[in-house]
Recover the amino acids of this structure.
C-alpha cells in the first residue's frame, strides 16, 4: 500500500457525502446472499477487512454479527457512528491476526489498494487464517486486468449543511505493471457557502483473473469467480474462496 489518500485521513469527515450508506443496499444484498450460500453451516459471524466508513456493514450487520477492521482510525470513527453495535478494531489487512476464526470473511473494494502480488497474497492469508473450515471469504476488487478500461465517474451528496461533488478519472499509465491510477477532484461546500477544490490521487492494484484464482488456491481456498449483479458494477467480478471442512 502507498501513502493514504486524503479521503481516509484529512478529508475523512466528508466521506459519507462522497459515498452514502444507502447507495450500497443492492450490492450488499448480493454479497450477503453469496456468503450465505457458500458457507456450511450458514454463517453467523463475519470479519470485514478494510471496512472503511462502514457502508456495507450498515446493510450486512443483519443477519451477521460483524467485526470490522480498518487501518485508518478516522474511518473507524465514522463507521462506529453508523454501526455502533459492531466491533471495530484498528489493523492492517495484510498482517492483522485476531487469534480466532469467523464463519465468513469479507473484503470489499479496500482490496483494490493492494498493489503488489506479495501484498495480495498476504491479504488472502489473513482471510484464510480467520476463516473457519466450512466457511468462505469474498473479495470485491474494482477491476481485474481483463476488464479494466479508462473511465470517468461523478457524483456526491448534500447533508448537515455541507455538500460534496466529485469527478473520478481511472487511467493506467503503465499497462505492464500491477497498478492503475484513480484521480479524484472534490468540490467541498461548507455550511457558510464557501467552496474549495481538492485533488486526491489513489494508486490502485490491478491483477489478472488468473492471478486472483492462483493466489486464492495457494492460500488454501477453493476459488470461484462470480459476476457482480448490481448497478454500475454489473459485469465486474467477485472472487469467492471456500475453505473446505
Amino acid at each position: 500500500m502507498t501513502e493514504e489518500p486524503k479521503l481516509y485521513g484529512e478529508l475523512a469527515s466528508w466521506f459519507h457525502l462522497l459515498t452514502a450508506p444507502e447507495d450500497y443496499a443492492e450490492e450488499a444484498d448480493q454479497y450477503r446472499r453469496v456468503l450465505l450460500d457458500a458457507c456450511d453451516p450458514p454463517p453467523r459471524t463475519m470479519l470485514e477487512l478494510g471496512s472503511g466508513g462502514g457502508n456495507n456493514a450498515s446493510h450486512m450487520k443483519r443477519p451477521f454479527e460483524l467485526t470490522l477492521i480498518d487501518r485508518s482510525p478516522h474511518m473507524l470513527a465514522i463507521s462506529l457512528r453508523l454501526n455502533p453495535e459492531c466491533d471495530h478494531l484498528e489493523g492492517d489487512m495484510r498482517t492483522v491476526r485476531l487469534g480466532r476464526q469467523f464463519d465468513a470473511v469479507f473484503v470489499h473494494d479496500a482490496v483494490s489498494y493492494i498493489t503488489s502480488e506479495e501484498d495480495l497474497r498476504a491479504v488472502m492469508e489473513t482471510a484464510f487464517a480467520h476463516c473457519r473450515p466450512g466457511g468462505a471469504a469474498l473479495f470485491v476488487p474494482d477491476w481485474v486486468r481483463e476488464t479494466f478500461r479508462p473511465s470517468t465517474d461523478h457524483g456526491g451528496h448534500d447533508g448537515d449543511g455541507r455538500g460534496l461533488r466529485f469527478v473520478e478519472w481511472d487511467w493506467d499509465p503503465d499497462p505492464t505493471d500491477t497498478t492503475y491510477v484513480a484521480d479524484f477532484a472534490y468540490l467541498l461546500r461548507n455550511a457558510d457557502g464557501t467552496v474549495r477544490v481538492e485533488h486526491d490521487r489513489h494508486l490502485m492494484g490491478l491483477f489478472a483473473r488468473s492471478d486472483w484464482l492462483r493466489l486464492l488456491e495457494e492460500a488454501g481456498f477453493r476459488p470461484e469467480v462470480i459476476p457482480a449483479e448490481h448497478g454500475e458494477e454489473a459485469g465486474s467480478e467477485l472472487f469467492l474462496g471456500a475453505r473446505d471442512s
Observations:
- The chain has two domains: 6-143+207-242, 151-205.
- DSSP finds six helices and eleven strands in the chain.
